[in-house]
Design a protein that fits this description.
About 40% of the residues lie in helices and about 15% in strands. The N and C termini lie far apart (about 65 Å). Strands 2-5-8-1-9 form a 5-stranded parallel sheet. Strands 3-4 form a two-stranded antiparallel ribbon. A two-stranded antiparallel sheet has the order 6-7.
Length: about 270
């Protein structure tokens, strides 16, 4: 029996230490939350390191990590599981949430606000004192493994009346706020992950900060740390820095000609 349980867990283990630069007390806070098996919500803008943080903590705690990229077409069955037809008839296939609860993994629902509210309701029994998941189609009440924890990420910048979490969902989680790192820390991350020298990384961070100042003034979202790393990787690969920045820091963010000109000007200012 143990072999059947442990085998799927092993494939979800984070074998190598992910690079993560601590910026506050988030590691200690998360460790305390995991010790209490408290469901956690990571709040912050896109590309600021939420997913990397979860991966790092799963490695640090030695727990399997099952990640689900949420989207508006995702159904409850996509999370919980369904019966499938094969040559031998029907068989039950656990969804990622069910599998995580069964084997004691950390289940990470990335950008959970993208999922329909009727889908996210299925997590409620797992996020209170019950820690159980009703599998109605299968006729099973699954008690979560003692090591199971649910983590969701949430971008408050996208919240609206149509895309927000219900209070009944929010108040089942502890929360850690994330934001883009301080300039020196972000430059260190960009240099390490992007393969460029620190001087170039600092220039990219300055462009990122200039772009973030435009959020709400023509841009829906600022330039993320992830995009800065992409730019660095292209530069490290030999692409002209101006071209690399336009491909990663300007074109993906907007199609508005005036806003593109503004961002292009910022790139030209810092990249010579």
């Amino acid at each position: 029996m143990n072999e059947k349980v442990e085998q799927p867990a092993e494939q979800y283990r984070v074998e190598n230490e992910p690079f993560y630069r601590t910026v506050s007390d988030e590691v200690e806070t998360y460790e305390a939350a995991y010790a209490a098996r408290m469901p956690m919500m990571l709040k912050g803008p896109t590309g600021c390191g939420k997913s990397r943080f979860v991966e790092y903590m799963a490695w640090k705690l030695g727990r399997p990590l099952i990640t689900v990229a949420c989207n508006e077409d995702m159904t409850a069955s996509d999370l919980v599981g369904r019966f499938l037809l094969d040559k031998d008839g029907t068989r039950w296939q656990d969804g990622p949430l069910t599998l995580a609860a069964r084997i004691g993994a950390i289940c990470y629902l990335d950008e959970v606000v993208e999922a329909r509210q009727d889908t996210t309701v299925v997590i409620h029994p797992l996020t209170d004192h019950r820690r159980e998941l009703p599998l109605d189609k299968k006729g099973e009440l699954l008690k979560a493994h003692p090591d199971f924890q649910l983590v969701i990420s949430y971008n408050p910048g996208y919240q609206s009346l149509m895309k927000d979490l219900k209070q009944s969902t929010k108040q089942r989680f502890g929360a850690i706020d994330f934001d883009y790192p301080e300039a020196d820390t972000e430059a260190e991350i960009v240099a390490r992950e992007g393969g460029v020298d620190l001087e170039m990384a600092k220039k990219l961070v300055q462009i990122g900060q200039r772009g973030r100042n435009l959020k709400g003034h023509g841009l829906d979202e600022g330039i993320s740390t992830r995009l800065l790393v992409y730019a660095a990787q292209l530069i490290a690969g030999g692409l002209d820095p101006l071209v690399a920045c336009r491909v990663t820091l300007v074109r993906p963010l907007t199609d508005d000609p005036d806003m593109r000109d503004t961002l292009d000007a910022a790139v030209t200012t810092f990249i010579e």
